[in-house]
Amino acid sequence: MNIVIAGINSKYVHSLLSPWCLKAGVESFCELKHNITIIETTINSSITEFSDEISKLSPDILAIPCYIWNINFVIELSELIKKRIVTKIVLGGPEVAYRSESVLKDYSCIDFVLSGEGEWTFSSLIDVLSLSRSPSEAEGLTYRYNEIIIKTSVKIHKDTPPSPYCEKYFNSLNNRIAYIESSRGCPYKCSYCLSGRLEKMRCFDAESVCENIIKLSNSGAVTIKFIDRTFNANEDHCYSILDFILSEIGSRIPENICFHFEISADILTNKIIELFQKFPKGSCQLEIGIQSYNTDTLNAINRHCNFEKLESNIAQLTENGNIHIHTDLIAGLPYETLESFISSFNRAFRLKTHMLQIGFLKLLSGAAINENINEFTYTFNDTPPYEIVSNKFLSNDELKIIRHCEKSLDKLYNSGRFMLTIDFLLKNTAFSPFELFRFFSDNFETDMISLKELTQNLYICFSPFCNAERLREVILCDLASIDANITIPEILKTYDKEYKRINKFYTEKYQTNVKTVICRTINKVYVVNCDSQKDLRKRKQGKYFDL
Fold first, then answer.
1. Following CA atoms 392, 395, 398, 400 in sequence, which dihedral angle do they give, to the nearest 10 degrees?
2. Structure pTM?
3. Per-residue pLDDT averaged across 330-350, rounded?
4. Mean pLDDT, the chain, as a whole number?
5. Which CATH number fits domain 2-151: 3.40.50.720, 3.40.50.280, 1.10.10.10, 3.40.50.2300?
């Protein structure tokens, strides 16, 4: 059979692994050999042009992995394909697996929906179709028979799936993010998540994982992201992989590769922390889900956390400054009021990780929290990504407050541009972290503005609440750390008695008409911007030094 698998990414830099997993499953498990083509695009590309590309391949089967961020593209594409060519369209993935019957009911263009692990379910379907067997023999399949929708059972697999990696995949990774899976499933059962819904966590052979790490590291990828839901859930497995990576960095693993892991911080052991502390700066990113500090909330979503251990471990991870760390909170969880969310935010912010990300609860098909919709009076958007509108604990207006705070948080803190300024304001004003970002969003627009305008607004917003001159100096320090040639807002410029003397010095030294010389004071350091980069000098204590 002629099979086309379409990978529809959110951005070009991402490279879905799932199409290659399906291909590996067919090649490993099917009784017959088949011609398999993988084509990729992004959700921002032309659906018409992508459908043209697919149509030219004349597939017998078109398979598309589905997620909340590409499902609209998938449905529109499927409808267009059905009008152009005769083919069977198969959908799978978390966005359709748990609502397979409604997908077939709502969209006549879809022929089959798969649930379960794709390597096995897709190959099972291909065997059924290529050998003219009954669809009832396929596993994890939802299909139509005489206008009746039928669903077969999903099997739980304990084996390691076949490797998705091949030469074509490696060749597609130049300057993109590569994905790798060292375990599947999750030991936890958080009610808003799908990862621990059915399957128990199982770890793949560490030696095989390490071999794939070497291949990915030399494929042209810039980041290798582990998609394990909790990478450190199995300590021995985690240790063996981290230890291997550390032993190979600078040897078989290029030094410019960055590894990304999602971990649970409160279960970290000292020996795992010590390994993370050994990573060269820039080679490791950690994503740590806190979600909430409200114990009632955590109990309601079947999640547990030792906060003291979490904070102690994060402090150890940040002390060396070698690891880039993101922490996450979720707004809209049960029993999380605006007041308790603000408390969680302030406590999480004071951990001083590189980024604090606010997510908004999404109603994922198949997630256990669906069972609590009526109990907690949840309303969600009907379209992807199905974000919360309100519940009995948070009104829509209160969620808007959190969203406004998030915008300022991203612009001022998560961007990394104003770290010194934010730290200064929290130490020298009465604002709590949440109040600080909320106050800025309440008074100034954060969307679609230049860095110059953002900087000016930051000074105008907070100068009445602290020593304005010190605030100016700190903002300028942040700006200088971004780009020495950045355009300074007029409100932050000062001209002092040193100006004329420095201007005269440069004019005489370089025998040029210096049109623009701006002297600004930053902690008794004079930074001079001249017409050319080579003329930039730093003056301190009466001496000039090349920067």
1. 130
2. 0.88
3. 98
4. 91
5. 3.40.50.280
